Amino acid sequence: WILLGLVGIMICSLGIAFIIKNIFNFVIPELLPWHLEGLIVALLGFGSIVWAGIGLYRSVSPILFASLDIDQVTNTVYVRRSLSKGPKIVALGGGTGLAVVLKGLKVYSHNLSAIVSVGDDGGSSGRLRKQLGLIPPGDFRNCLVALAEDESLIGKLFQYRFSQGEGLEGHSFGNLFIAALTNITGGFDRALIESSKVLSVNGNIFPSTLIPIELIADLSDGRVIYGESNIGDTEVKIKKLSIKPSSVNAYPESINALMNAELIVLGPGSLYTSVLPSLLVPEIQEAILKSNAYKIYVCNVATQQGETSDYGINEHVNALIDHTSDNFLDCIIANSRINFETESEINPVAVGPESVNGINIVYGDIIDEGNKYRHESNNLADLIIKVYHESR
């Protein structure tokens, strides 16, 4: 870029000289041979540029680089340029699982897009949904923090939950912030864009649809239950999941992201309440099927009481395929280490087959040592990127 700027200055100078010569018919007396005169003028010009650059650096460096040395500056520039050329990745899901995978993948690419489900109806998000008719913001808040440039103080602020106060207790600051921005900007999608600017988010966060959906589960005992919070608490096997309204339109930017993606990641997260809801939006499912991207499903490391009790890898994948299509996935990623203690009905998803329905399974040690029922962000991202590059 510096070289291009210098060439531009040279061309501009030649143009100005040409104009002056023709307007004033200006003739320079030849004091030295023409090539020496040209060299002297060029050196004078180059010296002026260098001197100006030194002066500019001395003026702004105390402000811009007060806490950084030149190695840090050049490293930051290099990393940003490298990440801007990273693969186009789209991750779908909700809950904490989507935030976990985004946090790991952002060190590989800034061309990240998260498509978040909008079926949440519990907690702070559920209250804002009922009171304001708002798309539940909780999962979006988690993704914003995960993709933020600095996850420290501002991240803690967005995740801060009020423990007291009439009307405030139970709400997180980030949810209220997004709700306020929705009213100010006139749209939930605009609120996400402005929130991303505040947090210096590297990537895009899109809703699967701009209409809050209701989850409906048909149970094996013949009952039908409604709402994400109720489905998550069920102790009866789920036969089928559907959404209301069933023909809801997808958010256009989500479709564009899927069609332009090089890698699509489904999960991790609650199978019926985080992963499947976005896939049940007809246009989302159709776009994934049409996309030329490599498609990976990240299976949970542990079952969830009620929702996926006694599920292994086969049951997770078959449930996903039953709600989508046989050729929906290219690869499955699963945890390889199951030697940790279990609690009540929450069990590790057992290591077993090499494939399910002809889809290859890749195993890796991707458990978070601090919480053995969740994935470790960096290890999971490393494995996802490794599988993606091997597929190419």
Brief write-up:
48% of the residues lie in helices and 15% in strands. With 392 residues, it is α/β, with parallel strands linked by helices. Strand 12 (367-368) and strand 13 (371-375) form a beta hairpin.
What do these coordinates show?
It contains 15 helices and 13 strands. It is α/β, with parallel strands linked by helices and 392 residues long. The chain has an eight-stranded mixed beta sheet with strand order 3-2-1-7-8-9-11-10, sandwiched between helices. Strands 5-4-6 form a three-stranded antiparallel beta sheet. It has a two-stranded antiparallel sheet with strand order 12-13. Strand 1 (89-93), helix 4 (95-105) and strand 2 (112-116) form a beta-alpha-beta unit. Helix 6 packs antiparallel against helix 7 and helix 11 packs parallel to helix 13 (282-290). The relative contact order is 0.10. The model has no long low-confidence stretch (mean pLDDT 89).
Tag the structure with descriptive keywords.
8-stranded mixed sheet; 392 residues; elongated; alpha/beta; 15% strand; 15 helices
Percentage of β-strand residues: 15-25%
Topology as a string of helices (H) and strands (E): HHHEHEHHHHHEEEHEHEHHEHEEEEEH
Shape: elongated
Number of strands: 13
| Biggest sheet, spatial arrangement of strands | 3-2-1-7-8-9-11-10
Helix share of residues?
40-55%
Terminal Cα span: 32 Å
Radius of gyration: 28 Å
- Based on secondary structure, the structural category is alpha/beta
Supply the number of helical segments. Answer: 15
Sketch the major β-sheet: 8 strands, mixed
- Uncertain spans: none
Mean pLDDT reading: 89
